[in-house]
Each structure stands twice: as structure tokens, then as C-alpha cells.
Specification:
- By secondary structure, this protein is mainly beta.
- It is built from no helices and eleven strands.
- Strand 5 and strand 6 form a beta hairpin.
- It is globular, with a radius of gyration of 13 Å.
- The model has no long low-confidence stretch (mean pLDDT 97).
Length: 123
């Protein structure tokens, strides 16, 4: 079965950097577009970034543009999220997901999700 496992989340200070990983199994990873979302307490799950199957095309939410970078290693079945200049408002559980539908920024366009990894940014 399809499994997505996120890792790398932890407590950091504002301004620091962090890299998240999402390891996929049970699917042909190189044929699946992927995205990262995040969810803060009491808020809806929010789109962060999308990457195409080959990694050529990416898109970002305005809130993270210029600070976060998505990448993937299809040989390792792994998706990455490099986060720099972290802010307290980046505190959330971060999820990776496999894209099935059309809208990049809608959770309804994704069929498989990981369990999430907690990122906490202190001021």
C-alpha cells in the first residue's frame, strides 16, 4: 500500500533553517506530482508548495516564496522541503501528499497523505 513518511521536524529558533523529508513507498514515485501542506492549531490545512513529477516545475504559496525550496530525488523516492529564515508563524504540522486532481492548492486534489511532522519556531 502507499505510504508517505515525513521526518525532520523539530523545535528551532526564528531565523534558523530546517529540511524536511518525505519518503514514499508503494507507488511509482517518479510518476507522481507532490506537494507540501501545513496545518497550524485551529487553522485549516494550507498549501505550501508543489513540484512536478520530474521536478522541473514548482510553485509556492506567497507566505513561503523566497524562503522555502521544494525538491525531490526520484531515485530515492524522497521529497524534500528546505526551509530558511523560519518565523514563528511557520509553526505547524507539515504534510506531504500525492497529487491526483487538478487544483494545486486544494486538499481535495490529493489522495495520499503522510502522518505529518511537527515544526515549531520559537521567537
Amino acid at each position: 500500500q502507499v505510504q508517505l513518511v515525513e521526518s525532520g521536524g523539530r523545535l528551532v529558533q526564528a531565523g534558523e533553517s530546517l529540511r524536511l523529508s518525505c519518503t514514499a513507498s508503494g507507488l511509482t514515485f517518479s510518476m507522481i506530482a507532490m506537494s507540501w501542506f501545513r496545518q497550524a492549531p485551529g487553522k485549516e490545512r494550507e498549501f505550501i508548495t508543489y513540484i512536478s513529477q520530474t521536478g522541473v516545475y514548482t510553485t509556492y504559496a506567497e507566505s513561503v516564496k523566497g524562503r522555502f525550496t521544494v525538491s525531490r530525488d526520484n531515485a530515492q523516492n524522497t521529497l524534500y522541503l528546505q526551509m530558511t529564515s523560519l518565523k514563528p508563524e511557520d509553526t505547524a504540522v507539515y504534510y506531504c501528499a500525492t497529487k491526483k486532481g487538478i487544483r494545486v492548492d486544494s486538499t481535495n486534489s490529493y489522495d495520499y497523505w503522510g502522518q505529518g511532522t511537527q515544526v515549531t519556531v520559537s521567537s
